[in-house]
Amino acid sequence: MAAAAVSSAKRSLRAELKQRLRALSAEERLRQSHLLTQKVIAHSQYQNSKRISIFLSMQDEIDTEEIIKDIFKQGKICFIPRYRFQSNHMDMVKLASPEEISSLPKTSWNIHQPGEGDVREEALSTESQREKETWLLITKWLRNETEEGVKTWQAQPLLLKCQSN
């Protein structure tokens, strides 16, 4: 698939997911966030991991705040995205604490992230990381249909093992 077609497909998918997320009530988003948090924290790969990469949620997304707090409570190392606008490159960089999030600068998309000049450990490219595993938490959405024919969306956690370069 050509780069332009991939880019167009990504934009289309993002727009569709954004529309679906906006359709969820605040109560349903909170319920889904709680269920997702419980599933992640109970997951064996999460339990056994020492390093987790996770996104910082925006207002209209599943809330990852409780998972981030648990990462630190369990003594794990947490990495969050830092997007480099000039190169369209994203690194997962170390977060010092859950409290640090609110002090991080915001991007033009209103997302907290460390500044580009802020030197931090990167999840996959530091020498100390070469022999370690980092798990990336993402959320997938599953479409469900009840016996009554009501269609709903349910958030499911997906943990992916990341390899060093």
Protein model, in words:
It is built from four helices and five strands, in the order H-H-H-E-H-E-E-E-E. The protein is globular and about 50 Å long. The protein has one domain: Rossmann fold. A five-stranded mixed β-sheet has the order 3-2-1-4-5. The chain has helices at residues 3-23, 26-42, 44-48, 65-73, and strands at residues 51-53, 77-84, 89-95, 134-145, 151-162. The longest helix is centred in the N-terminal third of the chain and has 21 residues, at 3-23. Helix content is 32%, strand content 25%. Strand 2 and strand 3 form a beta hairpin. The protein is an alpha/beta fold and 165 residues long.
The proportion of residues forming helix, as a percent range, comes to 25-40%
- Portion in beta strands: 25-35%
Low-confidence stretches: none
Number of strands: 5
Main sheet properties = 5 strands, mixed
CATH superfamily: NagB/RpiA/CoA transferase-like
Terminal CA distance reads 25 Å
> What is the CATH first-level class name?
Alpha Beta
CATH topology label: Rossmann fold
Mean pLDDT score: 78
How many separate domains make up the residues? 1
> Largest sheet, order of strands side by side?
3-2-1-4-5
By CATH, the architecture is named: 3-Layer(aba) Sandwich
Q: What structural class do you assign from the helix and strand content? A: alpha/beta
The coarse overall form would be: globular
Rg over alpha carbons: 17 Å
